[in-house]
Write a structure and sequence with these properties.
It is elongated and about 70 Å long. The protein is mainly α and 76 residues long.
């Protein structure tokens, strides 16, 4: 939720600097509605879920087996 809040703040800074303007801001700057934080939060959660589906985390046993299987290097 904190990331969504930071994105909303950045969105307000962007509209204040006229990087883009929403139709409701044509006659002057106004704060972006706080309801957009919920939209940003949903987008972040969807992104995390999709990345997790594409790049599944290794199970603890598989990660330990990978570490054990790697040969040790000895200093000369």
């Amino acid at each position: 939720m904190l990331v969504a809040l930071f994105i909303w703040l950045a969105e307000n800074l962007g509209t204040f600097a006229s990087a883009w303007v929403y139709p409701s801001q044509r006659h002057g700057w106004a704060l972006v509605p706080i309801g957009k934080v919920g939209a940003w939060y949903l987008l972040i959660m969807l992104s995390f879920v999709l990345v997790t589906l594409v790049n599944r985390p290794l199970a603890a046993a598989a990660a330990a087996a990978t570490v054990i299987a790697e040969p040790e290097t000895e200093a000369a």
